[in-house]
């Protein structure tokens, strides 16, 4: 009987995340799994091998795990990127950040000139006018690009569209008397071109290329998403809120099953338009369709909205600028019912809570559900959980909950949180990674891509440095060490997905998933962590150089 | 984009209120009382049977066919998509009844509906449980949601009044009046309110009061209401009339008037003016209100006071 070939990779340094053997120089791989990690002499004991020196000058880490992203990031790259900060597309091209509204308009004009038909729509994404002072973006700005084609640009937050006059006409909104809180009117009584909130956005979405069909079941998008993962060292990534209709599941299973697909996708079924019984039943059935590279069977629940959209639910004293409290997206009865049933059936539930009142509600609901349905190892996770205070982290620990915090917010919107949404004190304690770890709460950190760019090492940099775009440091006492940050983007995130037995560390028996780095994240200065150069990944023993995807 | 329909915009009745307040019971009453009117009932989810089983003719994914030509669809987070597609998919539909989720703010849902030119908001009904609403309003999590729901109501249905003694009911109704100062408040049991309050009044006909659906032991809902029908001179200013009938004090719960090819719809504190359906008889006003509350003189005075200025002075 012949056994499968063994490859031993030699590396400059291997950071294993296994405290029993924290670093090594060689890792042996067979059948896509790790046979062992350690000195060559030890590994040679497994039998004949091929020594691969490709990584002799590289640093290996466990493949990075993105615990909260959306495959839609791959879809969005079909639109024109108009964000404030440089961002790398799936092909590796870096799109420079737009420095002014004028810059945004110029870029749209450049793309517009290349469009053939005068009515073809022009769509963009990533716009973030808070960086351009007080002036709002208005339809006249985009009318300078075109008056014949509809133009729509989604804001970075995903909660606002800016459109031109043509798009408003097509949506039937270019009329006086529009009376909606999400549609500001100009002095002429007509919409300014800004559309906030899902309802107002839906009405124009279809006319500017953001229709639902375009966004669902997007095969090309799923492929582009994988390229982004490779460029960022990610080998397991969540697609955290999918409706997972049958045709999408089939497509995802087919694409991720292709020999060259480089990422394990963990797709959660969004709890929406179903009863708790229906969604848990669906999750159980989906779980049976899981493959190695497509993991199904978990549920994502939305408890509230977003902080910068003022739709997150905050406890007293509420928003710093006096805005009314946000919205509940799911009634507590439904949350409790879902938790109870999911605990009973062993289905994993992750709950989106941005505001601290939403976090409190989720804790209350889980506490009640656990009384009815005790469960030893549920790993229910609060996603974002941005405003949780120390007492809430202590409760999470007692209830066996995990937290997946959102440190990227500090960089992108920390100044806005400080000045407007929650005020200085709470802005400093937001995404309290240090408190979470000190409280014993299993911790992950995330990008929520496409809301912020996919890139666990950047997210780790945010958790370590807590720096805002303007250079302010928000709450040094909540900063965590580089070592802790690296653990959260590997084993930490894997734990929240119940995958820590398979991925997240480099040790015997686990999947041969590695992030291959040019620089050593433990040697580089902590404030340069985001600049660590990434060669690519190894996923299931297959090599994926970023420059070859 | 959906165009304005020939018969005027599709009226949308928004039914809000927390879980367990009787929204589904009310929806089923409306379906049973539709009497040939083709309703599209939109619900957030097909939860614990959105529609009584005996009403369902067939089921096809997100749509249930209901006897009498009505349908019931679940919209989840796709309310706008569902509404945008409906007029084309089902041109026969005459009215939409939109049941919001328990934590939704019906005022926000209604303002979203106003963005679609094919529709007009006919009224916002907020259901509360008369026994629990004040406790709910004090709830740290849900209190502000409940009071914001009430603040947007045109009609508040205080349901489950049979579970409340008279003294606390009086207090609760008074409290509701402070939360929804402009809304009309209707005490009810088992969501038994006259369907015509929500389904609209037939042109130039007496309201079709619910006569067949009395619940044993409960008073016939029809006996709780009164209706009026009167002629309206052609020189009445229809906007003025709408304002006066929807103002507190007239006891008007619902009114419909056809005048000079325009239709006036009043539901509680809300009025809307739309184009009149073809062939509708002009110069008639039909009004419905709670028995003993509907003030015929106040209604007549409202009509008089709405005569256009030139004639009033002359």
From TrEMBL, chain A:
Q: Which domain of life is it from?
A: Bacteria
Instruction: Extract the SUPFAM superfamilies matched here.
Output: Composite domain of metallo-dependent hydrolases, Metallo-dependent hydrolases
A Pfam family that this protein carries is Amidohydro_3
User: Per its UniProt record, what InterPro entries does this chain match?
Assistant: Amidohydro_3, Metal-dep_hydrolase_composite, Metal_Hydrolase, YtcJ-like
List, for all copies, the residue spans of the domain called Amidohydrolase: 57-542
Q: What is this protein called?
A: Amidohydrolase
From TrEMBL, chain B:
Q: Which residues form the CobW C-terminal domain?
A: 210-307
- Specify one Pfam family: cobW
**InterPro entries documented for this protein:** CobW-like_C (IPR011629), CobW/HypB/UreG_nucleotide-bd (IPR003495), P-loop_NTPase (IPR027417), Zinc-reg_GTPase_activator (IPR051316)
- Superkingdom assignment: Bacteria
Residues in a coiled coil are: none
Protein's job? Zinc chaperone that directly transfers zinc cofactor to target proteins, thereby activating them. Zinc is transferred from the CXCC motif in the GTPase domain to the zinc binding site in target proteins in a process requiring GTP hydrolysis.
User: Which PANTHER family does the record associate with it?
Assistant: COBW DOMAIN-CONTAINING PROTEIN, COBW-RELATED
What's the name of the protein?
Answer: GTP-binding protein
- Write down the species: Reyranella aquatilis
From which lineage does this chain's organism come? Bacteria, Pseudomonadati, Pseudomonadota, Alphaproteobacteria, Hyphomicrobiales
């Amino acid at each position: 009987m012949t056994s499968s070939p063994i490859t031993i990779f030699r590396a400059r340094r291997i950071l294993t995340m296994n405290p029993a053997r924290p670093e090594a120089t060689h890792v042996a791989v067979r059948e896509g799994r790790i046979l062992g990690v350690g000195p060559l002499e030890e590994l040679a004991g497994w039998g004949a091998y091929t020594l691969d020196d490709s990584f002799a000058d590289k640093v290996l880490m466990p493949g990075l795990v993105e615990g909260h992203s959306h495959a839609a990031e791959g879809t969005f790259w079909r639109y024109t990127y108009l964000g404030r900060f440089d961002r790398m597309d799936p092909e590796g091209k870096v799109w420079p950040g737009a420095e002014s509204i004028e810059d945004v308009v110029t870029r749209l004009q450049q793309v517009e000139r290349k469009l053939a038909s005068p009515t073809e729509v022009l769509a963009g994404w990533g716009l973030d006018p808070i960086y351009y002072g007080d002036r709002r973006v208005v339809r006249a700005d985009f009318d300078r690009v075109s008056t014949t084609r509809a133009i729509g640009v989604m804001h970075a937050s995903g909660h606002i569209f800016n459109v031109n006059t043509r798009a408003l006409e097509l949506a039937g909104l270019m009329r006086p008397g529009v009376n909606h809180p999400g549609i500001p009117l100009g002095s002429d009584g007509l919409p300014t071109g800004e559309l906030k909130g899902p309802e107002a956005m839906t009405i124009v979405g279809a006319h500017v290329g953001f229709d639902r069909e375009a966004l669902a079941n997007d095969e090309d998008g799923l492929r582009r998403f994988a390229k982004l993962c490779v460029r960022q060292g990610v080998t397991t990534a969540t697609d955290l809120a999918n409706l997972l209709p049958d045709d999408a599941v089939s497509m995802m299973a087919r694409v991720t099953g292709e020999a060259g697909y480089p990422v394990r996708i963990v797709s959660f079924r969004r709890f929406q338009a179903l009863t708790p019984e229906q969604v848990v039943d669906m999750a159980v059935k989906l779980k049976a369709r899981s493959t190695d590279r497509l993991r199904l069977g978990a549920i994502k629940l939305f408890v509230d909205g977003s902080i910068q959209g003022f739709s997150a639910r905050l406890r007293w004293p509420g928003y710093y600028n006096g805005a009314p409290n946000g919205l509940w997206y799911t009634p507590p009865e439904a949350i409790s019912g879902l938790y109870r049933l999911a605990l009973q059936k062993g289905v994993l539930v992750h709950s989106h809570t941005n505001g601290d009142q939403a976090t409190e509600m989720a804790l209350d609901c889980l506490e009640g559900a656990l009384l009815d349905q005790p469960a030893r190892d549920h790993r229910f996770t609060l996603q974002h959980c941005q405003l949780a205070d120390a007492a809430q982290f202590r409760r999470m620990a007692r209830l066996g909950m995990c937290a997946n915090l959102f440190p990227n917010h500090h960089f992108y919107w920390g100044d806005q949180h400080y000045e407007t949404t929650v005020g200085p004190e709470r802005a400093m304690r937001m995404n309290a990674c240090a408190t979470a770890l000190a409280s014993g709460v299993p911790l992950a950190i995330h990008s929520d891509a496409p809301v912020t760019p996919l890139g666990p090492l950047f997210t780790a940099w945010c958790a370590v440095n807590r720096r805002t775009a303007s250079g302010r440091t928000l709450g040094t006492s909540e900063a965590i060490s580089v070592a802790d940050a690296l653990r959260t983007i590997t084993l930490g995130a894997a734990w929240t997905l119940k995958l820590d037995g398979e991925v997240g560390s480099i040790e015997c028996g686990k999947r041969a998933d590695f992030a291959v780095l040019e620089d050593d994240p433990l040697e580089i200065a902590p404030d340069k962590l985001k600049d660590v150069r990434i060669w690519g990944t190894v996923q299931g023993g297959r090599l994926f150089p970023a420059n070859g995807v | 984009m959906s165009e304005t329909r020939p018969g005027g915009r599709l009226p949308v009745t928004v039914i809000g209120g927390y879980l367990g307040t009787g929204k589904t019971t009310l929806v089923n009453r409306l379906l049973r009382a539709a009497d040939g009117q083709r309703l599209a009932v939109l619900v957030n989810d097909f939860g614990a049977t959105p529609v009584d089983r005996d009403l369902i003719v067939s089921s096809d994914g997100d749509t249930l066919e209901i006897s009498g030509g009505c349908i019931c669809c679940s919209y989840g987070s796709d309310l706008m998509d569902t509404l945008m597609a409906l007029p084309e998919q089902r041109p026969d539909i005459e009215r939409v009844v939109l049941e919001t989720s328990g934590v939704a703010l019906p005022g926000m849902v209604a303002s979203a509906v106003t963005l679609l030119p094919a529709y007009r908001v006919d009224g916002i009904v907020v259901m509360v449980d008369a026994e629990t609403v004040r406790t709910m309003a004090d709830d740290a999590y849900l209190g502000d949601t409940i009071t914001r729901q009430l603040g947007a109501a045109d009609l508040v249905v205080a349901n489950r009044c049979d579970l409340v003694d008279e003294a606390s009911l009086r207090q609760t109704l008074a409290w509701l009046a402070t939360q929804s100062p402009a809304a009309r408040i209707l005490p009810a049991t088992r969501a038994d309110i006259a369907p015509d309050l929500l389904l609209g009044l037939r042109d130039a006909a007496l309201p079709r009061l619910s006569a067949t659906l009395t619940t044993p032991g409960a008073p016939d809902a029809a006996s709780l209401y009164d209706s009026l029908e009167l002629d309206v001179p052609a020189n009445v200013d229809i906007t003025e009339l709408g304002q006066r009938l929807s103002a507190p004090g007239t006891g008007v719960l619902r009114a419909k008037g056809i005048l000079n090819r325009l239709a006036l719809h009043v539901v509680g504190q809300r009025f809307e003016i739309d184009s009149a359906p073809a062939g509708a008889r002009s110069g008639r006003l039909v009004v419905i209100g709670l028995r003993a509350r509907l003030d015929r003189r106040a209604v007549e005075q409202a009509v008089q006071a709405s005569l256009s200025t030139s004639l009033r002075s002359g």
